[in-house]
Design goal:
By secondary structure, the chain is an alpha/beta fold. The chain has ten helices and 17 strands. Helix 3 crosses helix 4. The chain binds zinc ion.
Length: 342
């Protein structure tokens, strides 16, 4: 069967690999229909993602169909359309036993730490599949991206009517907004790019936007938008160390700051600011199984509309040519989707 290989930095090819055999106990064999491309794949392609080694088959945002199941599998059956929870945790690890398999010490994310789903078929533990019969494969491939935002919002846990600032209008920032809206929060987005802010305002219905200015006037703008109180929660989805350091300025007294973006660099901030306001600062990594369940249910109810998200489409043969174009901001890519089969 065919698979995509990221062979080396900035090099993609289609390779022939052995098709998987029969699924073992507790496993399922799946056919891949859709794979979403995200920032992780982009930085892997550029050789910038810490755990990604070449050559590797990426792909962790997946809409798949169950072909066969092994002994003891009851949660899925052949023909089921599913989203994939790509976080392979060690159930015996300390964090897994504490109910946090998303940040398991030995976590393997498929498509990052090991081969992923940019291929025709693969085998996966069946309990990592989330059935979404009735939803489109396009939607199922977006569940993982949404789950990142869902989990970050659950970490911040803002109440209805509270002011929440989301910094960074990329795909993760936009998924964060989806779940804030469902909670009835007042959403404010901040970014450097006015086009992205316009999209957030016009397509995503955020309540207010603030463009980051060189003069640092963002704080004044935010203050006037929030009666001088600033935000009960701030969620930084930039992964930029400067933004992450500054994010504390926007947090209200007794407020929370969640970092959902990742940087490989040190983040520093003035401690008196954090102490005086008695802030809570949190990380948000991956997502939990219940986030996937919740999102599939919300999609079925029509409460999450992802139609505007998929801006580009490609397939395995065209990927090597198309992928580099997604790196150019002029392409205005929000989410590119690979069609593996229809
Ligand atoms: Zn992703």
């Amino acid at each position: 069967m065919k698979a995509i290989s990221f062979d080396a930095k900035e090099s993609i090819s289609v390779i022939d690999v052995d098709a998987p055999g029969a699924p073992g106990p507790g496993e399922a064999r799946v056919a891949v229909h859709r794979v979403g491309i995200c920032g992780t794949d982009t930085s892997a392609y550029l050789g910038k993602f810490p755990f990604f080694q070449f050559p590797r088959t990426p792909g962790h945002e997946l809409g798949v169909e169950v072909l066969a199941v092994g002994d003891g599998v009851t949660n899925v059956k052949p023909g089921d359309a599913c989203s994939v929870e790509p976080y392979m945790n060690d159930p015996e690890s300390y964090s897994s036993k504490r109910g946090r398999p998303n940040c398991c010490d030995n976590l393997q994310v498929i498509g990052v730490h090991c081969h992923g789903g940019m291929c025709e078929e693969f085998i996966i533990p069946a309990h990592k599949l989330h059935v979404g019969n009735g939803l489109k494969y396009d939607q199922l491939a977006l569940v993982e991206t949404l789950a990142i935002g869902c989990h970050a919002v659950n970490r911040a846990d803002p109440a209805k009517g509270e002011n929440v600032l989301v910094i960074g209008c990329g795909p993760i920032g936009l998924t964060v907004v989806e779940f804030l809206k469902i909670r009835g929060c007042r959403t404010i987005m901040m970014d450097m790019n006015q086009d992205r802010l316009d999209f957030a305002k016009n397509e995503m219905g955020v309540d207010a936007t603030i463009q980051v200015q060189k003069d640092g006037s963002e704080l004044e703008q935010l203050s006037s938008l929030t009666d001088g109180n600033l935000c009960e929660a701030v969620i930084d989805a930039t992964g930029n160390k400067f933004s992450m350091s500054r994010a504390l300025e926007f947090v209200a007294f007794a407020g929370k700051l969640v970092y959902v973006g990742v940087t490989g660099e040190e983040v520093s901030f003035p401690h008196p600011l954090m102490h005086r306001r008695e802030m809570t600062i949190m990380g948000s990594r991956n997502a939990l199984a219940e986030d996937f369940t919740q999102i599939i249910e919300l999609m079925k109810q029509g409460k999450i509309d992802t139609d505007a998200w998929i801006t580009h489409r490609t397939d395995m043969e065209k990927l090597a040519d198309d992928f580099p174009t997604y790196l150019d901001p002029a392409s205005k890519v929000l989410k590119a989707m690979i069609h593996i089969s229809e």
